[in-house]
Amino acid sequence: MMLLPCLLLILSACVSATQYRIPRLSPTDRDSEALSSPLSDDFKTFYYNQTLDHFNYRPESYTTFAHRYIINFKYWGGANSSAPILAYLGAEGPLDNDLNVVGFSTDNAAQFGALLVYIEHRYYGKSIPFGSREVALKNASTLGYFNSAQAIADYADVLIHVKKELHAKDSPVIVLGGSYGGMLAAWFRLKYPHVALGALASSAPILYFDNITPHDAYYSIATKDFRDVSESCYETIRDSWSKIETIASKPDGLSILSKEFKSCSPLKNSAQLEDFLWSMYTVAAQYDHPPRYPVTIICDAIDGASSGSGIVERIAAGVFAYKGNLSCYMNQARDETETDVGWRWQRCSEMVMPLSTGNDTMFPAYNFELGSFIDYCNELYRVSPRPHWVTTYYGGHDIKLILKRFGSNIIFSNGLRDPYSSGGVLHNLSDSLLALHTPNGSHCLDILRANETDPQWLVEQRETEVNIIKGWISKYYADLGSPNNI
Questions:
Q1: Is residue 423 within 8 Å of 207, Cβ to Cβ?
Q2: Which of 181, 205, 220 shows the shortest CA–CA distance to 363?
Q3: Do 454 and 290 meet the contact criterion of CB atoms below 8 Å apart?
Q4: What is the rounded distance in angstroms from the CA atom of residue 335 to the CA atom of residue 349?
Q5: Cα–Cα distance for residue pair 214/164, rounded to 1 Å
Q6: pLDDT score, position 16
Q7: Looking at residue 6, what is its pLDDT?
Q8: For 132-172, what is each residue's pLDDT tens digit?
Q9: Contact at 8 Å (CB) between 415 and 445?
Q10: Pairing mode of beta strands 410-415, 433-438
Q11: What is the DSSP letter of 398?
């Protein structure tokens, strides 16, 4: 019975995105990155016969699916020299989206002599259980195998398989990832220290669970990003929401707003415009990367609007500057991506991140209500979220006291202009659990491809990360060659 697609259509029509608006968790702003450029021939695609369920022994648990991973052999020093392996852990989207833009591995592979491995997250891209996406996403019975614990067990299986196939038993593995993938990298090192020597966890908000971080922390930083650029821009955005509501309440108000913002189809309600603007501001703050600096682009346009422009006209000017010269804006007919669908399930199962707005932000007041969210997910999937499971399974509470006693070799990197840095690890926990952060950095910027325009502080952050990883590997080689090595 194809119940789920029908529910998705019904709920997406009747539930405002404002209720459960969670900014994207992705290393890249997929609206602006050039993701369509062809891949180098150095990337070779493989498929592993992956186990559906790593944690049970029921007959159906042994079902397998084709799990995609990609290898770049170009820089590898070989198994005979125990040259290292840099493994990128895919997150909530097809692996293809990250190969061209997440450049930390390729930029540094030569100096490590590293084999580069990229592993796709189950249920995304071409790594689909049950033979087809339609069946895999059908209902909670098939979606139940779609979670982070299964995903990192997949990664362990693939890495052990690759090392066996390449006779690379002694090659140390360093895992890396960004955003949700950064969480997976940190959790992988904690759960599978026998597989990964260390982890680079970029912009990983592992503390934005279970009320560890204040609910309004994300939107407080997003607001600060705009306010730091321009006080008047911040004030215009803060005051615009009520102005939009006032215009929308008039008999021809929605037509006025549709024309002002050049919407691709007539607005049906003010929430459509507000959701669009809310998303635009959070994406701009989160991915406020050099040299473009989208927050500055938006604020310069808002502040630079022609004399006599009202609040709504100024906001529209910010939209046009940020989005570029398009025939229309706010395409409400956009098809949902597999990331939209997949992340909704992950949010409604284990990835319960409570985000609210406070009175001191530039966003409308919004309070995350766990009870309402549980009702929403129950209606959608007939299962309830487990809001405490992430901290139960991976930890998070009292991290300064606890993690340093059993964890090691993790770099938690953050840019403090990234709103998700509020849920990141920002202080060293031990000599090998290290927090690197840059005041002007943004989401996952350190693991993106290096460019000539990169500011010096970003160059230095990456160099520090590389040197830390080199230290881990050097110590590993020393231990490997020790006569007392067991």
A1: yes
A2: 220
A3: yes
A4: 23
A5: 45
A6: 42
A7: 33
A8: 999 999 999 999 999 999 999 999 999 999 999 999 999 99
A9: yes
A10: parallel
A11: B
Place of tokens 């290290």: 434
Q: How far apart are CA 469 and CA 409, in angstroms?
A: 8
- Sign, Cα dihedral of 7, 9, 15, 16: positive
Cα separation, 79 vs 56, in Å, equals 34
Residue 95's pLDDT is 95
96, 216, 288, 418: the catalytic one is 418
Q: Is 418 a catalytic residue?
A: yes
Instruction: Return the structure tokens found at 343.
Output: 């992340």
Please list the ranges in the chain whose pLDDT falls under 50: 1-18, 32-35, 485-486
Cα separation, 156 vs 162, whole angstroms:
10
What pLDDT does 413 receive?
Answer: 98
For the packed helices 231-248 and 270-286, what is the interaxial angle rounded to 10 degrees? 160
Residue 21 has a pLDDT of 66
Instruction: Count other Cβ atoms within 10 Å, centred on residue 41.
Output: 8
The residue behind tokens 């405002």 is 16
435: left (phi over 0), alpha (psi -120 to 50) or beta: beta
- Superfamily of domain covering 30-210+392-481: Alpha/Beta hydrolase fold, catalytic domain (3.40.50.1820)
Write down the residue that tokens 């403090």 correspond to. Answer: 416
d(CA 364, CA 42): 48
Residues pairing with 307 in the sheet? none
Q: How far apart are CA 279 and CA 254, in angstroms?
A: 20
* Res 12: pLDDT: 36
Whether residue 179 lies in the annotated active site? yes
Q: Are 269 and 338 in contact (CB under 8 A)?
A: no
Q: How far apart are CA 430 and CA 401, in angstroms?
A: 10
Instruction: Give one DSSP letter per residue of 135-190, joined into a string.
Output: HHTSSHHHHTT-SHHHHHHHHHHHHHHHHHHTT-TT--EEEEEETHHHHHHHHHHH
For domain 211-386, give the CATH number.
1.20.120.980
The domain limits of the chain are 30-210+392-481, 211-386
443 has catalytic annotation? yes
| Residue 340 to residues 204, 330, 335, 461, Cα–Cα distance (Å) | 20, 17, 10, 32
Q: Are 174 and 210 in contact (CB under 8 A)?
A: no
Pick the catalytic residue from 67, 443, 446, 454: 443
Measured CA to CA in angstroms, residue 133 lies from 130, 207, 241, 348, 452 at distances of: 8, 32, 39, 19, 40
Would 30-210+392-481 and 211-386 be classified into the same CATH topology?
no
- What is d(CA 357, CA 388) in angstroms, rounded to the nearest whole number? 21
Model pLDDT, residue 23? 79
* Region of residue 415 (phi > 0: left; psi between -120 and 50: alpha; otherwise: beta): beta
Catalytic, out of 26, 179, 270, 442: 179
Which candidate, 84, 52, 55, places its Cα nearest to that of 176? 84
